[in-house]
Specification:
- The complex is a heterodimer.
- In chain A, 38% of the residues lie in helices and 19% in strands.
- Chain A is built from eight helices and seven strands.
- Chain A has a seven-stranded mixed sheet with strand order 3-2-1-4-5-7-6, with helices on both faces.
- Chain B is 23% helix and 22% strand.
- In chain B, strands 9-8-7-10-6-1-4-5-11 form a nine-stranded mixed sheet, with helices on both faces. In chain B, strands 2-3 form a two-stranded antiparallel ribbon.
- Chain B is globular and about 55 Å long.
- By secondary structure, chain B is α/β, with parallel strands linked by helices.
- Classes of the chains: A alpha/beta, B alpha/beta.
- Bound molecules: S-adenosylmethionine.
- Residues 32-33, 36-37, 39-40, 62-66, 68-69, 84-87, 90, 112, 114, 127-129, 131, 135 of chain A line the site of S-adenosylmethionine.
- Chain A: It comes from Aldrovandia affinis.
- Chain A: InterPro entries: Ribosomal_L11_MeTrfase_PrmA (IPR050078), SAM-dependent_MTases_sf (IPR029063).
- Chain A: One of its GO terms (molecular function) is protein-lysine N-methyltransferase activity.
Chain lengths: 204, 301
């Protein structure tokens, strides 16, 4: 039987300290939601600095992880924000982080949307989602279709990962902002020093 | 894109007491702890620092050997390398794999990847050959800066401070170039758990030597491997001779290729150091406390 989300939530809350300081003790496999990724950090900062991109918009945060970018979109006045992550624990983490930011829990979805029929999103946020070749390929074509059918604005936050830098999508990206990573973030991401927010423009 | 290729060799961990096989054909490797050659750690560290200085854009870690060398590549990725290349060599080919074969592989990859620099350890602590960097440079017909204790990229050139007998030599060479790391070049960072986790998804491509057009035939025959002679009691302990000789492969270092090496400083690794040297990276090391995500939350949201 899968563990209920309430139980996971209680577990995370009770063990917060240990979860954050002892990743070797994490009882979850690949707990990406436990990390605030440098790509997501830049994207979140960008949305907070430019609330106009999200205000009154219908927003999808794809691969939302801890939910930071989704939360930033909501704080910026988005009409609707969906936090989408295939890891059900990420949905719980996002709920807890909504609480910490005095927000009503955001709607979340664990279904894999990549490849599905594009819905009418005004804005799609992707924080650090170009970390795997196959994922990058499928995102590339699906995001292209979202833009084609609905004119969706697609923003990508990425700290210069090889999987993005060497991908064919790279020449279709326009830089919007670049942020230097704070020392604590560099310590956890050796080799990375800055993170960029890109807009995907397939027409380029 | 400016790219650095770093060679990382999987060797028996430096703290392990080496045992010679009863038939004197080699040393016992089964069930023995292995880790990245310490000089290769220094090479990776230097490449990552160049990336952090934004002098280069990408660090590619290469290792030749069986499946297990992927662990060594993972360590390099956790230290900040961007992606890995596993050159698959196993069985008899792996037993006979020496500096010449590795140099041919590295030279082929350096061309294929259009590397701006190849950074290697000055030698490996298992065979102590000190040939791979020199031969790689020769095969590529690139300049070389061996025994580096300082590396500074200046436009299309690199300034290398070299550790030579009784002093330091500063040279300026054109890029692309091969650089080999000496002990004092830097102190490698630990592969901490957050970094290990983040390195999990970095790509390790597999290639075969034949795909690179490299023939692995070796022209060296190992006749016999012996334990080093027992040390005499009451030695003066000048620290000049290797204290614990890991040089178990007599007859293996008769360079079988172009060798334009600089001076060889033996036994550096074993010398007492002023500061504790780089420790082996181990994925099971207890993690130092990491900064909490919630702190970052507070500052950003
Ligand atoms: C590197 S994390 C980024 C998390 C967050 N955006 C951030 O920047 O902190 C990648 C996330 O994508 C999720 N993911 C992977 N494939 C996905 C898919 N097909 N659809 C939705 N989420 C996916 C993972 O579960 C993980 O939480």
């Amino acid at each position: 039987m899968p563990i209920s989300k309430t139980k996971i939530g209680r577990f995370i809350r009770q063990n917060q300290r240990r979860l954050l300081t002892r990743p070797d003790l994490w009882p979850f496999t690949d707990p990406y939601w436990a990390i605030y990724w440098p790509g997501g950090q830049a994207l979140t900062r960008y949305v907070l600095n430019n609330p106009g991109v999200a205000r009154n918009k219908k927003v999808l945060d794809l691969g939302s992880g801890c939910g930071a970018s989704a939360i930033a979109a909501k704080i910026s006045g988005a009409a609707y924000v969906l936090a989408n992550d295939i890891d059900p624990v990420a949905a719980v983490a996002t709920k807890l982080n909504c609480e910490l930011n005095n927000l009503e829990p955001l709607p979340s979805l664990t279904e894999d949307l990549i490849g599905s029929k594009p819905e009418g999103w005004d804005l799609i946020l992707l924080g650090d989602m170009f970390y795997e070749e196959a994922l990058a390929d499928s995102l590339h074509s699906w995001l292209g279709r979202c833009i084609q059918t609905h004119g969706t604005r697609v923003l990508i936050g990425d700290p210069g990962r090889a999987q993005l830098e060497s991908h064919s999508i790279r020449i279709q990206l326009c830089p919007l902002a670049q942020y230097e990573l704070p020392e604590a973030v560099r310590e956890e991401n050796y080799g990375l020093t800055s993170s960029t927010v890109w807009r995907y423009r397939p027409e380029l | 894109m400016a790219r650095v290729l770093v060679g990382v060799k999987r060797v028996i961990d430096y703290a392990v007491k080496i045992r010679v096989k009863p038939d004197h054909s080699g040393v016992v490797t089964d069930g023995v702890k292995h880790s990245m050659n310490p000089f290769c750690e220094i090479a990776v560290e230097e490449a990552v620092r160049l990336k952090e200085k934004k002098v280069i854009k990408e660090v590619v870690a290469v290792s030749c050997g069986p499946q297990q060398v992927q662990e060594t590549i993972r360590t390099a990725l956790a230290m900040g390398a961007d992606r890995g290349i596993h050159v698959e060599v196993s069985g008899k080919d792996y037993e006979a794999l020496g500096p010449l074969q590795v140099s041919k592989i590295l030279a082929a990859l350096a061309k294929k990847e259009e590397a701006k620099m190849v950074i290697l350890g000055k030698q490996a602590i298992d065979d102590d050959c000190n040939q791979t960097g020199q031969m790689t440079a020769a095969l590529l017909d690139w300049p070389q800066g061996t025994f580096a204790s300082e590396v500074a990229v200046e436009g299309d050139t690199v300034k290398v401070v070299r550790e030579i007998d009784g002093g330091l030599e500063t040279i300026k060479i054109n890029l692309p170039a091969v650089v080999t790391a000496d002990l004092r070049l830097n102190t490698p960072r630990y592969a901490t758990l957050p970094n290990i986790m983040k390195a999990k998804k970095k790509k390790i491509a597999k290639v075969k030597p034949a795909d690179l057009g490299v023939d692995l035939t070796s022209r060296v025959e190992v006749l016999r491997v012996d334990e080093p002679p027992q040390r005499q009691a009451g030695g003066s302990g000048t620290g000049v001779e290797s204290e614990e000789c890991t040089d178990t492969q007599e007859g293996l270092c008769l360079g079988d290729g172009p060798n334009q090496g600089g001076p060889v400083s033996h036994g550096d690794w074993d010398k007492p150091e002023p500061e504790p040297g780089p420790e082996p990276l181990c994925v099971c090391d207890p993690a130092p406390p990491v900064s909490t995500e919630s702190e970052q939350w507070d500052t950003v949201l």
